[in-house]
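ok trying again, last paste got cut off:
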Amino acid sequence: RALREQQILQALEDLPPGVTIPQIVQFTYTDVDPSLHPVAAWSVKAHLLKLEQEGLVEHVEPDGWTLVRPTA
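nice, full thing came through this time. structure:
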């Protein structure tokens, strides 16, 4: 779980601001069959909401996410 969270943070660092959950899933879940990506999106959303509460990421309209502060 911690590894996946780190991968999501890395995706937000590497991808442009305002990246969407499906884009994060595609970047992060390379080891998962694409037919399971809709399920993976639920996990990414849960991670993003946790990270948002911690002040690390923020939701930008309409469906994007961005890193608030660098993780390194």
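cool. The first helix runs from residue 2 to 14. The mean pLDDT is 92.
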